[in-house]
Protein: Putative transcriptional regulator, LacI family protein
Organism: Roseibium aggregatum
Amino acid sequence: MSEPGERPATIEDVAKLAGVSIATVSRALRSPEKVAESTRKKVTAAIARTGYTANAMAQNLRMQRSQMVLVLASSIADPNFAGILTGLEKAANDRGYGVLIGNTEGTTGLEQNYLRFLSTGMADGLVLLTGHIPVAGQPQTPLTNLPPIVATERPVSNPEISYVGVDDVAASKVATEYLISLGHRRITFISGGPADIRSDLRHSGYLQGLKESPEALRDWRVEGDGSSESGRAAVERLFIKDDLPTAFFCFNDNTAIGVISALQLRGYRVPEDFSVLGFDDIPFANNFTPGLTTIRQPRQHIGEKAMTILLDRLANRSLETQTHLLHGDLIVRESCGGISRKLK
Amino acid sequence: MSEPGERPATIEDVAKLAGVSIATVSRALRSPEKVAESTRKKVTAAIARTGYTANAMAQNLRMQRSQMVLVLASSIADPNFAGILTGLEKAANDRGYGVLIGNTEGTTGLEQNYLRFLSTGMADGLVLLTGHIPVAGQPQTPLTNLPPIVATERPVSNPEISYVGVDDVAASKVATEYLISLGHRRITFISGGPADIRSDLRHSGYLQGLKESPEALRDWRVEGDGSSESGRAAVERLFIKDDLPTAFFCFNDNTAIGVISALQLRGYRVPEDFSVLGFDDIPFANNFTPGLTTIRQPRQHIGEKAMTILLDRLANRSLETQTHLLHGDLIVRESCGGISRKLK
DNA sequence: TCGTCTCATGTAAACGTTTTCATGGATCGT
DNA sequence: ACGATCCATGAAAACGTTTACATGAGACGA
C-alpha cells in the first residue's frame, strides 16, 4: 500500500505497526520457527499493509555479501555468448543471485575496470568468458584474494579456477571420424588462431580422429583466426598451391561459412565437390545453405553448470575446483557428403 | 598490500594508519578540496599501503542508491540483443554504473521475479526490451513508484517511459521506395505478428512508400511472426493462391531468410526471380547467400543513447521523458534486383 | 512453593560508509 | 591586543538490516 511520494517502508515501520521490535520482524522473515504463531501473523499483516520489502543494500552490508555474480566476456556479440548467458542467468536467478555483465572487448583496461565490482564487494563471484585471468594493474598482486572463479567457453589454465565447457577433443575426434567414414582421406583442419587454446584442443581431437583411420592420414593444418574472413582466406591460399583437400574441418561455424562461400564463389558446390564441417552450431547454422553439419555446443547447459559450480563454491568455500566437460553432439545437416569423383 | 587471508581494509584502517579520523579519509576521497594538502598526502599514502577500496554496499546504503541498472529482455538470444546490450553496457560503464540483466523469456512470472531488484533497491533504473511494462503481480499497483524507465528495441506506449529505437516508419518507407525504384509494382509486406507494435509501424512506413509511387499500388500484407519459419510459410501460402508479388519486404531479416530459402527450394533465384528485403541487418545478413539487402538498426547507438537518457534521468529526476528515433540506413547487398521479365 | 528450564521477545552492537554539526586554532583587520 | 572570520578536523548520527546476548514470563518437577 506504499503511497506514490513516500519513501519505501522500512523494517521499523513494520515493527511499529505490528507492535513488536524490529528484531522480531527480522526473525519472522528469516527464521519463522523462532517466533510465536500469533506474532508471526501480526507481522505478516503489517508487512502486507506497508508493502515492505527488505532493503538489499542493508542486508548485504550486514551479511557481507552481495548476491551478485560478475560475468566477464571479451565480446558480447560472440555467437556463443547469448546461449551461455541464458544458462548462467537462469541458474543464478533460480538461486536468488543477480548477474552483472562486463564487456572487456579484449582490452585489459576495461578488464581492470570491472574488477572494481569485486574489490568493492559488489560481486561475490566471477565467471570468465575471456580465456584468461584478469590482469592485475597494480604492482601488487591481488590475485591471491580473488573470489571464487569459474571459466566457461574458453579454458583458463589455473588450478584455482573451475572450468566447464564442451569436450573439444572428443567432439573433434568424432567430427573427423565422420568425415573419414564418408570416404574422405584428405582433410584439412582450419585453426582458430594461435592465441586460442580451444583451437589446439580441436586440432588434437582431429589428430586422434585421423589416427583411427585404416590408412595413415596427413595432419593438414591451415591457419585461420575464427572469422569467416579467415575461412575464405584459407581457401584462397590452398587454391594458390593447387593442393586441395576433399574436406574441411573448421575451428568454428564462422570459419566454415567463410570456407563455403569462398568455394561457392569459385563455382564449386558443397557438399557435392567439397565437404565442410564446423563447430559450435551457432543459431544460424541451420539457416545457412547448405545447412551446416557441425558440432553442437550445449551452450545453455554449459552456462547453467558453470553457474551452479560457482554458487556451490560460494556457499561452501572449501569445495574443490573442478573441470566439467560436456558432450558435443555431431549435428548432421547438408554440408558434408561422400567424396567427389572429380577430385578424388 | 592486502594479505591473502585478511579481510579487506576498511576506512578505519586507513584512518588509523594516517593518524586522522575516518571523516577526513572520506573527505579526502570524495571532496579533496576540503582537506589540507599535507593530510591529503598522508591519507593517499595510507590508502596505497592498505590497498583500501571503499565498500560499495556501505556507500550505497548510506547514499540510498545502487549504481546499478536492470535490463529486462524477453530473449537474450534475440539477434538484436547483443548489439543493444553492448551499447547499454558501454554507456553505463562509462558513468560508473553496473548492468544487471534479466531474461524474462516472455513470461510474466520471471518478469515479476526481476522486479525484486527494483523493490529491494538493488537497481536504480530499468531498461525494457520487452515491449511492455512489467505487470504488477499484487493487487496493489506499485507502478506509480517505479523508478525511471527507458524502453528500447520495442516501443512501450506510456508517457512515463522514454523510448529510443530506430525510426521504423521512415526506414520502411525508404525500403519500399527502393523496391519501387527497382521497378517493382507488386510488393508484399510480411508482418511480424499482431502483438508486435513494430510490425504495424513498419507496415505503415511501407504504405507511405507505396503512396509515393506514380501508380496506385496495392497494400499487400501477409501475416508472419518474425521467425524464418513464418517467412517460409508465407511464401507457401502465396504459392497456393498463385497470386505472386515480385518483391517481398519482410518485417525482419529472419523472415527474409525464410522467404529466400522457400523460394530457392522451389527452384527460384533471388534476386533474379524475386527481390527480398529485410530489416535489422543482423550480423548474419552479410554472410547469407545472397547477401541480404536490409535496413540496418544502429544497435549499439540505440543502446548507448537509451542508457544515457536513463542515467541523465537518474541524476536529475525532474528531466522529462523523451522519444528518440534513430535513422536506419538502407544497406544494399544482393537480395534485391530489377523486376524479373518472366514474372512481370 | 520454589528453583530451573524453555521459549518468545527486546536491546543493542555491528556492518562501512557519508555528512551535519561542533570545535579549536590560525589569520586578519582594527 | 582582541574580537571576528575562516578553515581543517573530529565526533557522532544516520542509512536498514541481522544477530548475540539479556530478560522475563510460564511451565514443570521436586
